[in-house]
Amino acid sequence: MEVTSDEYFCNINRCYNLSMENKDIVEFWLKAAKKDESVMKVLFANKKYADSLFYGHLVLEKTLKAVYVQKIQSSPPFIHDLLLLTRKSQLKVDEDVAKKPEIITC
Asked: 11 has which bridge partners?
C-alpha cells in the first residue's frame, strides 16, 4: 500500500516528509536499499535465486532514486524501470547494453 500527499511519501514500512532536506531523502533511499541488500544476500545464500534477483532489482531501484534526488534535487518518479531511472538521473547509459533488454530486465 502506498500513500502520498502534499506532505509525505509513504510505502508499506517507510515514510519521509517531502519538506525534508534532499540529503535526508537521499539517506532514506540508501538506507532502504541497504536493508534490501541484506535480504537479497540471505536469499542468495539460501539458493532462492529468483527472490534474490527481485530484491537486487529493489536495491538498484532505490539506489537510483537516491542518485536522482541528489542530482535532480527533486522527488524521484514513481517508476520501477531501471533504464529509465538511470536516464532520468542523468547517468551515462551504455546504449549497446540498453538495446539488449534481457541484460537489464529479468
From this structure: 14
Mean pLDDT, the chain, whole residue set:
83
Tell me the residue range of the domain where 79 lies.
21-104
66 inside domain:
yes
Coil, helix or strand for 10?
Answer: strand
User: Is 8 inside a domain boundary?
Assistant: no
- The number of distinct structural domains making up the chain is 1
Interacting residues of 104 by C-beta distance below 8 A, sequence separation 6+: 82, 83, 97, 98
pTM over 0.85: no
DSSP 3-state of 105: coil
Residue type at position 103: I
Q: What is the pLDDT of residues 38-67, one digit of tens each?
A: 999 999 999 999 999 999 999 999 999 999
For residues 69-83, one letter each, b for 16 or more C-beta atoms within 10 angstroms of the residue's C-beta and e for the rest, the string is beeeeeebeeeeeee
- Whole-number Å distance between alpha carbons of 82 and 65: 10
